[in-house]
C-alpha cells in the first residue's frame, strides 16, 4: 500500500508488484505533475495509467466525471480500480485499452503520460500521434521521460512546437494542439520486439 500527498491531496494506492513503480509513486510522474495545473473545465486522460496516480489525483481535484484512465495491462487497470475506491472516486472511467484502442473520445483538453522509454519509440510514437487526434484545439499533451532529442523532435513535428522543462533528471514536455492537422510525421521507428511487447502488455517496466 502506498500513502502519499500530491498537490496537497492525500492519496492511497494499492499496487501489484508486477505494475510499474509498486513501492512509491514514480519520480518521473511526480516531476510531470509538478508542471501541471488541473483546471475545473479540463477533460483529462491518464494515458498508460498504471495504478492510477495521475488520473485519481485529477479526479480528486476536478471531479471524477471529467477524467478517463486507460492502460494495456489488466493488472494495472485492476489496481487503478481498487485505488479509485480507496480514494473515494469509485465511478471514475478506467478502461483496459492498448493505447487508444478503447479511447475514441476526441474532447480531451489535457492528456498526461509517462511512457515506457527504456525501449524503442513505437509506443510513444503511437501515444503522441493518437493524443493529437483526441485533443480539442488548445488542448495539451504532457509527457515525461529521461530522453530528450527524439521526444523534442517528434512532438515538434506533430504539434508544431513543444515546451520543455527539466526537473530531477527528467524532461517534462508540453505540446499544445494549435491546428486540426498533424504538422509532419517522422519515419516510423522499428517496432518493439515480441519479448518487449510481452513485457509491456504485462505492465512491467521495460
Report on the architecture of this protein:
It is a single chain. By secondary structure, the protein is of the alpha/beta class. It is built from six helices and nine strands. The protein has a seven-stranded mixed β-sheet with strand order 5-4-3-6-7-9-8, sandwiched between helices. Strands 1-2 form a two-stranded antiparallel sheet. Helix 4 (122-134) packs parallel to helix 5 (149-159). The mean pLDDT is 90.
Task: Provide a quick synopsis of the model.
31% of the residues lie in helices and 25% in strands. It is an alpha/beta fold.
Features:
single chain, 6 helices, 7-stranded mixed β-sheet, 25% strand, alpha/beta, globular, two-stranded antiparallel sheet
What is the strand and helix layout of this fold?
Blueprint: E1 2-6, E2 9-13, H1 27-34, E3 44-47, H2 53-62, E4 67-71, H3 74-86, E5 93-96, E6 108-113, H4 122-134, E7 135-145, H5 149-159, E8 163-167, E9 170-176, H6 194-201
Parallel strand pairs: 3-4, 3-6, 4-5, 6-7
Antiparallel strand pairs: 1-2, 7-9, 8-9
Helix pairs in contact: 4-5
Shape: globular
Element order: H for helix, E for strand: EEHEHEHEEHEHEEH
Estimate the strand proportion. 25-35%
Structural domains: how many? 1
How many beta-strand segments?
9
Structural class: alpha/beta
